[in-house]
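tool_log.txt
---
The assistant was asked to compare two proteins side by side. It first ran the structure predictor on the initial sequence, then on the second. Raw inputs and outputs are pasted verbatim so the downstream comparison step can read them without reformatting.
(1)
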Amino acid sequence: METIRTHKKCYRHSDGYIIKHAPNHILCSNLDREYEYEHRIVFFENKGYGPFRCHWCNIPVSWTNMHIDHLDDNKTNNSILNLVSSCSRCNTTRSGLYLSNLIKVQGKFYTHNNVTLHLSEWARQLNMSHSALAWRIKNWGVEKALTKRKRN
């Protein structure tokens, strides 16, 4: 009895990106795989091999070191008008800013000495992890947790 292998045409990656089955696409065949991120396929089909420059800092990038960035931060909006070439540094920085803003919207703010900051901003100021400060606030209270302590 012969086993027939079937493939999903596309699926959503755990990070939110759309992955397409494209075994004959140049981006897949060069790396001997069958699936590729949809936004990379769309960008390649519209822009080709390059050369490219980072949309944000203008340094040269190529397919070997380039990220494809979603301008609106929507990982499923793969319109070519929403996709730009990006260097690793700029893409990572933009992702960090997006997550930081998302955390601020969803997170908790604390006021100490008439200063109101988000938990992650207090953690940065106190030079400790987000989770360590959250534990201190839960167990010690806001006033004690947000007070800088002098080391002996």
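(2)
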Amino acid sequence: MVVDVGAPVLYNRRLSPHYNVIALAAPAIAAAAEPGQFVMVKPAPGLEPLLRRPFSVFEVLRDSDGTPTAITLLNKRVGITTAQLFDAVEGQRIPCLGPLGRPFSLVDASTEAWMVAGGVGLAPFATLATALAARGVPITLFYGGRSADDLFFIELFESAGAQLVLTTEDGSRGEHGRVTAPLDRALAGRGARSVALFACGPEPMLAAVARLAAHHSVSCEVSVERVMGCGLGGCYSCVVPLRGNDGHPHFVRSCVNGPVFDAAALIWD
């Protein structure tokens, strides 16, 4: 069920000069959210920005009885909306619509889940890791950033039992290079193990992961990052091209048909 609430800010934790994680008291959204879904938020009134912007649900927070009480959003300050989220203060009410979109497909314990995250593409994987760990699924997180300053919440995924493969483009943490290099090696050496890939991050990274999945014959779901005007399918601002049965592109709205897609169905070129 989609709800629209004025969610009070419970806390705003600064992770660095550009990253923060913000908690919003939205129990109805927290109770309904599935891994990979998102919310539309507008951190400040007025015309800047005019419309809400999408953010993946990062964590679902629970009280001592296990009842969902809030969600968190992982944010990087790069524009007007993200700057407003970075500066939000405790008690401030933020309009929050959700949960929205198509979630990830959960695999069972016979299949390993390999998550591939680039930068803030980590956001949808905290809830996915929690859900998969509860099903006994082995998890590996391939996590890349420009530098060590772009990598966060390592311990959260370790607590879910995930194996970690870290890369940075400047070599300041983990392997020097892009995250697709160790992923390619791991896929080539997986042997008879059944693996499902899940990816979120910049579109060039998603395209590269999709090509690796096809080359190694493994399933892959990607969460695409698109500018969305409404989140409900009314504005057609977030269309993505899928392969049509007639050989021509078939455009769908990522807010309602995604943001999670079968990587093999998307047209990347």
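---
observation on (2): The chain has two domains: 3-100, 112-223. Residues 112-223 form a domain with the Rossmann fold fold (CATH 3.40.50.80).
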